[in-house]
């Protein structure tokens, strides 16, 4: 395993990292590379060049005295030669902006972006004898512009409260597009207790892999993400096949074609665990400073999105609870109103029955045992008078069983004045 210079090596396949925000900016937007070369004659033979020029075309060709066509064969060389031919023929300088070229060779080949100027040597009244090329690599600047634009778009999504799954999915795709090498991004979200990690976003990982790691525990040695969540610090596994942290997941990773995993914890402002941000690679790989800086930048963006989501969820839950309390209060008020109305109705019924009893008692004072119920109210009751009832004020009346029961239920002081028990006189003289 190759250890990245300037970092301290951990256990097998892992690299421990120290960083600052300033180092992140330097890694992402560092100084550009200046390229210089001087060409002679119509064949554009390299007379002089700086190391950056030779590094761009491949170190194996790092010598002067060769024509550009020999140094840069193929289509790329044809493009350069065509520009040099035009400048040599016309004597007019040429300026190229944001020109994408492949620099290096073999496994070191990469796409880079340059701004450059080709100036004729001699010229004017004199014949053009050669060309001077001065260029500046703007790859990092171009990447920075893309990063800023993508970050602005993500922040706008967060500000307008777009669904968290959409923000995280867009963020993962953004980094996969920005990274110079193929990378597969995954975001896992921590449960409230911080003991498990749930699927958040992983647009390029196989579905079976996402399903398998959904719900993994956080803990020492639980892959890259479980360990990063447990430690609250980045865990860089450069070779999954050889790393003990991946013992339980090695076969799964092999099925998914994953060979390296760099995981960064996503932390809240108070240090609480929100989730993890992982970058997977198809082959064993040690991260560069810019790789780690990108991971931290996007982990911070994910932190902002997740915290905002938690705030909105808590707000919605609080509003739902408040609405439930308001509904319960309204129901209690409605029930209280119904009970009050029912009580008032009972009071009115009791008053009416009491009035009937008094009227019946007054009539009974001068009349024998009535044949019909005296408690039927204004409409009367034709049922036989079978039960005598009385109250504690001395009023008594005869009624049918139904009206007598109604009086007993609605007037608290009413009782059956049973003659077998001495009747009302026995009660009054007790």
From TrEMBL:
Residues 308-352 form a coiled coil. The keyword Coiled coil applies. Keywords: Coiled coil. Residues 166-316 form the GAF domain. It holds the Pfam family GAF. SUPFAM superfamilies: GAF domain-like. The keyword Coiled coil applies. SMART domains: GAF (SM00065). This is GAF domain-containing protein. It comes from Nocardia aurea.
């Amino acid at each position: 395993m190759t250890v990245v210079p300037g970092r301290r090596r951990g256990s097998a396949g892992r690299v421990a990292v120290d960083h600052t925000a300033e180092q992140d900016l330097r890694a992402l937007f560092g100084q550009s590379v200046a390229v210089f070369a001087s060409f002679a004659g119509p064949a554009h033979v390299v007379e002089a060049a700086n190391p950056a020029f030779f590094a761009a075309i491949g170190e194996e060709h790092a010598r002067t005295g060769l024509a550009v066509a020999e140094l840069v064969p193929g289509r790329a060389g044809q493009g350069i030669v065509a520009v040099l031919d035009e400048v040599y023929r016309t004597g007019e300088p040429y300026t190229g902006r944001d020109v994408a070229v492949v620099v290096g060779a073999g496994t070191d080949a990469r796409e880079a972006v340059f701004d450059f100027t080709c100036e004729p040597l001699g010229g004017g009244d004199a014949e053009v004898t050669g060309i001077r090329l001065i260029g500046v690599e703007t790859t990092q600047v171009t990447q920075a512009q893309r990063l800023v634009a993508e970050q602005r778009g993500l922040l706008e999504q967060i500000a307008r409260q777009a669904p968290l799954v959409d923000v995280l999915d867009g963020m993962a795709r953004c980094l996969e597009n920005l990274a110079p090498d193929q990378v597969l991004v995954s975001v896992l979200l921590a449960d409230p207790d911080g003991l498990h990690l749930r699927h958040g976003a992983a647009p390029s990982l196989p579905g079976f892999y996402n399903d398998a790691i959904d719900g993994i525990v956080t803990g020492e040695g639980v892959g890259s993400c479980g360990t990063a969540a447990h430690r609250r610090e980045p865990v860089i596994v450069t070779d999954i096949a050889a790393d003990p942290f991946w013992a339980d997941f090695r076969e799964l990773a092999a099925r998914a074609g994953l060979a390296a995993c760099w995981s960064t914890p996503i932390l809240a402002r108070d240090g609480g665990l929100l989730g993890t941000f992982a970058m997977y690679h198809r082959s064993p790989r040690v991260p560069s400073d810019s790789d780690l800086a990108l991971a931290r930048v996007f982990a911070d963006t994910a932190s902002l999105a997740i915290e905002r989501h938690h705030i909105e969820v808590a707000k919605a839950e609080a509003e739902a609870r408040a609405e439930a309390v308001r509904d319960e209060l309204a129901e209690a008020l409605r029930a209280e109103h119904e009970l009050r109305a029912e009580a008032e109705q009972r009071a009115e019924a009791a008053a009416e029955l009491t009035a009937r009893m008094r009227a019946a008692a007054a009539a009974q004072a001068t009349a024998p045992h009535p044949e019909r119920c005296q408690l039927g109210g204004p409409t009367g009751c034709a049922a036989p008078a079978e039960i005598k009832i009385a109250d504690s004020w001395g009023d008594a009346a005869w009624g049918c069983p139904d009206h007598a029961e109604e009086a007993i239920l609605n007037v608290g002081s009413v009782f059956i004045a049973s003659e077998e028990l001495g009747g009302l006189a026995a009660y009054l003289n007790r």
